[in-house]
Specification:
Length: 245
Amino acid sequence: MISVRDVSKRFGEKLAVDDVTFEAEQGSITYLLGPNGAGKTTVMRMIAGLTRTSSGTISVNGSGLRDFRDTISEIGFSLGAFARNPGHTAEQHLRWQARLGGLTTSDIGPVLYRVGLDQVAKRPVGKFSYGMLQRLGIASALLGDPKTLVLDEPANGLDIEGIIWLRELLLGLAAEGKCLLVASHNLTEVEITGTRVVIMGKGKVLSDTSKDELVTAGSGPRPLESAYVAITKDSVEYAATGGTR
């Protein structure tokens, strides 16, 4: 479980995250949505301990991140597809992460197989496609079989097969009782897999409700999309008129 309580973050004069509160529960897929610049990535970096909060508290499975003696079994992160040494193979990349987490190298093979990279385990990641890098990031998050996972835009760069694979993976992990917090712009996947949806805009929480309640609030042939657009209409930094004049 992830609990974010009254969290704010300032970068100089800019208030990037403003009094954000929400929870992501075990056995569920909680999506964090919002326009570019809404503060989603900053929130995720604060959960990961990469950015300090200016105020408020964050707990994971009832404890602060620094209180864990075995963090890798509590929470896993995939926050950027390019946080890799391009000269390392996929196997080497996971090996040093496993060692840092106190795991053995025997934990690496099953994870590479689960994300579909077992056949390219000895290929340098500098030769990976964007979609393969996304799979490697998810493999990193899965090391240690953590109770909680935080994934930032995991579907970016995936082809159709990859999106279907990711969908089944997320649903399977939730069915195992894991807590998943996922930032996304893919409303189709949110509608298929989501349990709860938190929508941010300009650093604030604009909506925090179940996926089903959000869909019910929408209208037309794409109700989730219509509800999202209505909620975020005053928070879009780069608005355009599309094909109209």
